[in-house]
Amino acid sequence: MPVDLTRAFPPFALRVEAGPLSLRYPTDEDVAELVEVAAAGIHEPERMPFYVPWTEATGDTLRTNTAQYFWRKRAELSPAEWALPLVVRHDGVVVGVQAVETRKFLVTRSGETGSWLGMAFHGKGIGTMMRRAICALAFDHLGFAEVTSGAFTDNPASLAVSRKVGYVDNGRHRLERREGELAVNVGLVLTPETFDRGNAVVEVSGAAELRRFIGLDE
Q1: How far is CA 112 from CA 36, 82, 85, 102, 181, in A?
Q2: What is the DSSP secondary structure assignment for residue 147, as one 8-state letter?
Q3: pLDDT value, residue 110
Q4: Which segments in the chain show pLDDT lower than 70?
Q5: Is residue 21 a contact partner of residue 90, using CB atoms and an 8 Å limit?
Q6: N- to C-terminal Cα separation, the chain
Q7: Please, what's the b/e burial string for 93-128 (b: 16 or more CB within 10 A of its CB; e: otherwise)?
Q8: What pLDDT shows up at residue 3?
Q9: Fewest CB within 10 A of the end CB: N or C in the chain?
Q10: Beta-sheet pairing, 202-205 with 15-18
């Protein structure tokens, strides 16, 4: 008999469908697929698009670190601080992760989006579709007033996705990316009024269970 964990952990009930894309909270089976996508490569070795350079790890170390990230976020999820690192499938194939993360959400109604795609799936418009899907979930079903993001100035592809979706610039920050390496990060913010939804219809199920779990409907 299949085990149903959605009563114990309602995020497992969440489903977001947008044309050829599907997003859900990752099960352990999804995590197993995601670690292999990550191990196959997310970006060229000489580049680093992330605040935390987690992709500098390789092989089984990268696999372990990636799996532990998902398990840690699952264990820490509470109304005070939560993340939805959703596994993304395109035509049924696991391609990457689209996340939104927040703290003190019941007060701030704000959170930050972040994502990654396996290199084999770059340049196909998938990044824009999955960003629009998570923003539709955030604004239409979870009561966000804004979502933020950011990208380094040497990551024009990420900046282009953000601006296509409707994010506007929200300041710049000089950061240490790798040890001893300066990088300039462009802050971005999106509101329901600036959100460019594109043409895809986004369908969501399981949001009511998630809302109760994070304290929205108490």
Answers
A1: 25, 11, 11, 6, 24
A2: E
A3: 98
A4: 1-3, 218
A5: yes
A6: 33
A7: ebbbbbbbebeebeeebbbbbbbbbbeebeeeebbb
A8: 62
A9: N
A10: antiparallel
Using an 8 Å Cβ cutoff, are 148 and 37 in contact? Answer: no
Tokens of 178: 């790798």
Q: Token digits for 158?
A: 């990420």
Q: What is the pLDDT of residues 124-166, one digit of tens each?
A: 999 999 999 999 999 999 999 999 999 999 899 999 999 999 9
Q: Domains (ranges, CATH) in the chain?
A: 10-213 (3.40.630.30)
CA gap 73, 59 in Å, rounded: 22
Encode burial over 190-214: b for 16+ CB neighbours within 10 A, e otherwise.
beeeebebbebebebebbebbbebb
Radius of gyration of the chain from Cα atoms? 17
φ and ψ of 10, to 5 deg: -55, -25
Query: C-alpha distances in angstroms, 83 versus 33, 36, 77, 169, 170?
Result: 20, 22, 7, 23, 22
* Angle between helices 59-76 and 28-40 in degrees, nearest 10: 140
pLDDT at 1: 43
pLDDT value at residue 47: 82
Name the DSSP class of 187.
E
Chain length of the chain: 218
Between helix 156-165 and helix 126-141 the angle, nearest 10°, is: 40
